[in-house]
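hiii so um. not sure if this is the right channel but i have a protein structure encoded as tokens and i wanna go backwards to a sequence. like what aa goes where. can anyone help
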């Protein structure tokens, strides 16, 4: 029974719990057993919350037995990315700088999970301060892809994607600054959502780039992601960028997408700049097959031209480091975090320099240096100012594209998961993994990655990305669920189940 429970989706588990066919304690224990059996082979977690998770599950069972009203996902276990503050578990952001730090408050998203009584299984691994595309830059070692343990699970949220893909949790929370939810989802065969900027509070998220960061769900199907976004979204007075209005029910949109004929009349814009050259052959094959299936289901394809996307990576890697250098300035050895004492006269300046040298990894240092230079006198207008102008052009390209299409589409990533070490020595090659995902962050619009099959040349997962106008996240859930339903009917089983046949994890 334990294995059966870990293979079920969050919505399936919620139904079993609501009808009292299983208890929350049984569900939580099943996932804790799965975590124990997987061990360190995938290395999804940086911290385990076994006792706290079981205590929450027990409370859910007691309240349900007493007939108390509960949230739909109450009792369904979840994992949380380790850049979200938690009062009962360390929050490290994958960095030695914060090793062992216990925050004095919960992130708003975490507080909402606790209020809804989802057992939090633990904190998931990530690239240090969310800087990376492979989780190879975690100070505590990389997570691994359950489809092939010699390959990356994406980044920065490789811990969240691998924990869901390896059936250690049915739900996880990630953060997406340039694709850190969607790229890991694509290479692990999971579903990942970056909501509209401001739809989910960032209060308690250790900031990387404040104008780009967004928290979102990682799940095994679209409906589960919709249920989770409905739970964590909403206005938060602690976050000045939080949207004041509700975006509606994402779960209703996903369920509508699963109905027959739901794609009829929907215009899908193929982004000219995000197809063709530079994309792995197997990725293109699965992408084109999915487009054909959508047309057969009644969708209309149009090509859209977004010429400014050519400069998106360049602009992003000026804006992000600039904001990161400012955000990380707080880690100064004085107020909180690590402190390294140098030899000799320990002045504040020398302690700060020694602490930042020892506490930050190579990718963090690289981006701090780049960002500080971009913001320096004489360089601001030339680099950072110019990047902001490109950002405006990208937003205008999106406006023009959405005038022709309801949603836009591209492969989520140019390739399937690459092997460890293949791109660490070449930062530019690593950055190109996010070529398709970065524009959405620059524009603040929502994006979803949905698994569409395995690339024929390597039997690794491929993801398709849908983008919608700001505040219209429901369109993504509608279209994503519709395609997911078509593919599930085609295969007769969820794609994620193929992982069991490929790897005996």
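sure thing!! here u go:
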């Amino acid at each position: 029974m334990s294995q059966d429970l870990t293979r079920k989706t969050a919505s399936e588990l919620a139904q079993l719990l609501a009808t009292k066919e299983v208890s929350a304690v049984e569900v939580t224990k099943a996932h804790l057993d799965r975590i124990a059996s997987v061990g360190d082979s995938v290395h999804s977690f940086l911290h385990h919350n076994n006792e706290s998770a079981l205590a929450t599950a027990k409370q859910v069972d007691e309240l349900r037995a007493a007939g108390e009203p509960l949230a739909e996902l109450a009792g369904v276990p979840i994992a949380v990315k380790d850049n979200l503050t938690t009062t009962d578990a360390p929050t490290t952001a994958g960095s030695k700088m914060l090793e062992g730090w216990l925050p004095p408050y919960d992130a708003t998203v975490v507080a909402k999970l606790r209020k809804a009584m989802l057992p939090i299984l633990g904190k998931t691994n990530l690239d240090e301060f969310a800087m990376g595309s492979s989780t190879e830059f975690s100070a505590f070692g990389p997570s691994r892809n359950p489809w092939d343990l010699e390959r990356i699970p994406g980044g920065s949220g490789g811990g969240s994607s691998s924990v869901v893909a390896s059936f250690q949790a049915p739900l996880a929370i990630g953060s997406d600054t340039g694709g850190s939810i969607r790229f890991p989802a694509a290479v692990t065969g999971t579903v990942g959502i970056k909501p509209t900027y401001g739809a989910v509070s960032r209060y308690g998220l250790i900031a990387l780039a404040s104008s780009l960061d967004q928290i979102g769900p990682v799940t095994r199907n679209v409906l589960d992601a919709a249920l989770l976004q409905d739970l964590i979204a909403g206005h938060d007075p602690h976050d000045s960028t939080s949207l004041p209005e509700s975006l509606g029910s994402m779960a209703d949109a996903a369920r509508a997408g699963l109905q027959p004929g739901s794609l009829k009349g929907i215009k899908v814009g193929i982004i000219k700049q995000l197809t063709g050259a530079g994309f792995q052959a197997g990725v293109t094959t699965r992408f084109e097959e999915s487009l054909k299936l959508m047309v057969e289901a009644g969708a209309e394809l149009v090509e859209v031209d977004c010429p400014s996307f050519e400069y998106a990576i360049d602009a992003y890697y000026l804006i992000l480091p600039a904001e990161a250098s400012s955000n990380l300035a707080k880690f100064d050895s004085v107020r909180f975090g690590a402190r390294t004492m140098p030899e000799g006269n320990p002045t504040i300046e020398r302690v700060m320099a020694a602490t930042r040298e020892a506490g930050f990894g190579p990718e963090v240092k690289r981006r701090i240096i780049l960002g500080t230079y971009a913001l320096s006198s004489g360089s601001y207008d030339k680099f950072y100012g110019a990047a902001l102008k490109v950002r405006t052009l990208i937003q205008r390209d999106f406006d023009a594209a959405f005038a022709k299409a309801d949603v836009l589409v591209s492969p989520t990533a140019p390739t399937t998961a690459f092997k460890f070490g293949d791109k660490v020595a070449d930062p530019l090659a690593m950055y190109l993994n996010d070529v398709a995902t970065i524009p959405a962050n620059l524009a603040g619009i929502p994006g979803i990655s949905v698994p569409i099959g395995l690339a024929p040349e390597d039997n690794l997962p491929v993801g398709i990305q849908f983008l919608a106008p700001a505040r219209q996240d429901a369109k993504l859930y509608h279209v994503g669920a519709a395609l997911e339903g078509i593919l599930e009917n085609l295969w007769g089983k969820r794609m994620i189940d193929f992982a069991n046949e490929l790897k005996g994890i």
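oh and The chain has a mean pLDDT of 94.
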